[in-house]
Amino acid sequence: MGIDLQRGAVAEVIVDFPPVNALPAAGWHALADAIGAAGADEQTRVVVLAAEGRGFCAGVDIKEMQRTPGHEALLAANRGCAAAFGAVYDCPVPVIAAVQGFCLGGGVGLVGNADLVIAADDATFGLPEVDRGALGAATHLARLVPHQLMRTMVYTCRPVTARELHRFGTVLEVVPAAGLRRAAHRVAEEIAAKDPLVIRRAKESLNGIDPIDVKRSYRFEQGFTFELNLNGAGDRARQRFVEGR
């Protein structure tokens, strides 16, 4: 259980936090460290980011926040998410997200910063942040869906399917769940066969021409989460979630 890094030309970083891959604050930092270590290895040509279980990621561990006095867990989770999302974006080699089941909240932050997305046919993507009294990862959702759909998803917390994202071109392939990891590795091996120095410079150049600074944009969003927490709205929403209301 936790974060597993399997090194190689195609490195694999695997998330495993049963039952729903809701990551505690330490888990986000561990994920950032694993992706950073994979990218720093000169033998790595591509990173596949995958998860065990029925869903890719359910976001942050809200129960951890509610059982921890004060703001320590909230602050740690916010910094951990920023670190993990940043690690995906800054990884010097392409990162392929292999997504099954639900991809929610922080999961969207990871996938939105990935270079390529392969999804299982049961995958759904959503930001339930408004229902949780928080804001964030709209920065990354905007890289997956058109602008007004992004706004609709934020306001309503409605998810979209992998097939919808495939129509937008932001999911490369939709495959049966049993073949998800194999499909991600097939694309990874195609990239890994290229000149590794050229691919690393390609990643750097593509980040350099991005129209939005995703790290600054996400931290701006997080400021409103702090505001909601200070005025009590965030805590009330999280408590409703924990109590199943």
UniProtKB/TrEMBL annotation:
Keywords of this entry:
Lipid metabolism, Lyase
Matching InterPro entries: ClpP/crotonase-like_dom_sf, Enoyl-CoA_hydra/iso
Give the superkingdom in one word. Answer: Bacteria
PANTHER family attached to this UniProt entry: (7AS)-7A-METHYL-1,5-DIOXO-2,3,5,6,7,7A-HEXAHYDRO-1H-INDENE-CARBOXYL-COA HYDROLASE, ENOYL-COA HYDRATASE-RELATED
> Which protein family is it in?
Belongs to the enoyl-CoA hydratase/isomerase family.
Q: What is this protein called?
A: Enoyl-CoA hydratase family protein
Which organism is this protein's natural source? Actinoplanes sichuanensis
